[in-house]
């Protein structure tokens, strides 16, 4: 892709960052915010009923899911879920620790806290909340952060509850399985104004916000604890909401692809216009072409036909060559139609003539299908194999999407994939989705509370770097590495508890661990307490500095073992002074002639010989001391 002038195309990006908070319990109950593995202790089922908001409106997408009889199967265990999570009991009081962290983050982003926290219900259509809605409370508004030289306007900071984890779909295709251990874990949601004008800038802003959130010291660590949603628009395109970008470094790619996708759709619109395609010629008229595939060699279709299901086809006039057009890598116009068919028709996918012959479908079969729908040269045909109901809904969605191609880019909610491309998720939800929660009382934010939060405000990263340099005499590079790798607390704890030289600890926690990681050592297998224990051993003189890496590496391969176990297993027990003297005496005897000739000038040479013998089992300081006494 050639370089794009982002200002010229009117690119505007807003970010919505969700980060799990680590405050010991969930947002509205005291359950452990912990995910469980293995078999659940409790399972229960729910059908979601569409709820009306106070104006009596029902979200169309909710009633849709309801009509289709979708069932939700929830799994839980006692440690991470209670009656609140199962919607058998009203929510308890708002978690004050979570509120304090949200306030701290808001104040660090120069936002104005609200006077009263009102908890709202936000309708959630997919069953990921047992109640059918998610709680959300605005904590602060209107702030700013500095990213490089630019000031980025911040819109809101809210407290929300995380949703249940989707585990899978049962074979019936209508039962969705969720785990509610994650449901109710506090999240802070931070939104920027749409004032970001390039993909790279979006990534830098997300990094800066993530940094501030981590600076609170109260956020979860690991995979899946931060999620970035992007609102992307360009002048002639549409506002697209992209959900669920998990990796920070993917943000710019996702935006670049989205621009590419919108450009591609705009050129398709132009091409269809040129071909004289209008809405009227794209009719939802479906032909039953099941008979054509009775004896088909194409397994994907035969499976359906043999089950007595249907193959339906629709003509898309003037669409030849359009469906196969690639918008972004591995994503074609046909994929746009297919995504809609999957969502609205619950089918596995669609077939279209731009990709034929394929999947074992023969030229003859394609010709027959084209004839059945009355397609002439220049037309495209889409067909679907599934139950009558699903196939019908799927093709209906295909025609709707094909008609939208004539308008340009439809506004919608999409979900990000790991390769940076996006897929259709659902229609963009309207404002009808929020209404007040009456079971939770309003929480006043008093001046005292703000004062308390202000007096405990964490140290911002840049200040911390400066302090580490001054306090521990570290150079800028090491101090920065420690703060960036977020081991500053561990670093300071180790020094406070053990008194080991700061630069030794710093180099180990940053450069050494990084290079071990590069060599595929599973550094994550060693926890912070074990690392502390290694330095405690150094400080006690039971381990030499030189053997730190050896012990650490051993611990990565031997889980649940202690530093002492490592020292014994590696035969690194330190020599006592008496034992050391025996070794030294022997070396003196061996080198008697040279010592008699050169006297004290041989100490350096002897040091080398002794250290070679006792490597990792005696400190050079002690060896040197004994040698000096003896020579
Ligand atoms: Zn609970």
Architecture overview:
This protein folds into 4 domains: 12-272, no CATH class; 278-405, Gyrase A, domain 2, CATH 3.30.1360; 459-569, no CATH class; 577-630, Orthogonal Bundle (Arc Repressor Mutant, subunit A). It has 20 helices and 23 strands. Strand 16 (326-328) and strand 17 (331-332) form a beta hairpin. Helix 14 runs antiparallel to helix 15 (548-557). The structure holds zinc ion.
In a few lines, what is going on in this structure?
With 631 residues, the chain is an alpha+beta fold.
Beta-strand content bin? 15-25%
Report the bound ligands by name, code or SMILES: zinc ion
Measured distance between first and last alpha carbons: 75 Å
- Whole-number tally of structural domains: 4
Our count of helices gives 20
Low-confidence stretches: none
Rounded to the nearest angstrom, the radius of gyration is: 32 Å
Proportion of helical residues: 25-40%
Q: How is the biggest beta sheet arranged?
A: 11 strands, mixed
What structural class should be given to the helix and strand makeup? Answer: alpha+beta
**What is the molecular shape?**
elongated
Care to count the β-strands?
23
Average pLDDT number: 90
Structure keywords:
631 residues, alpha+beta, Gyrase A, domain 2, 4 domains, eleven-stranded mixed sheet, four-stranded mixed sheet, 23 strands, 39% helix, elongated, binds zinc ion
Write the layout of secondary structure elements.
Layout: E1 12-20, E2 42-47, H1 60-67, E3 71-76, H2 96-108, E4 112-113, E5 116-117, E6 119-123, E7 133-147, E8 150-161, E9 165-169, E10 175-179, E11 186-192, H3 199-215, E12 226-233, E13 240-245, H4 251-274, E14 286-288, H5 299-306, E15 310-316, E16 326-328, E17 331-332, H6 333-345, E18 351-352, H7 363-373, E19 380-386, H8 388-404, E20 413-416, E21 422-426, E22 434-436, E23 443-444, H9 447-455, H10 461-472, H11 476-484, H12 488-498, H13 502-518, H14 528-540, H15 548-557, H16 563-569, H17 577-590, H18 592-598, H19 603-614, H20 620-630
Parallel strand pairs: 3-10, 13-20
Antiparallel strand pairs: 1-11, 1-12, 2-3, 4-7, 5-23, 6-7, 6-22, 7-8, 8-11, 9-10, 12-13, 14-15, 15-19, 16-17, 18-19, 20-21
Helix pairs in contact: 2-9, 3-4, 6-8, 10-11, 11-13, 12-14, 14-15, 17-19, 17-20, 19-20
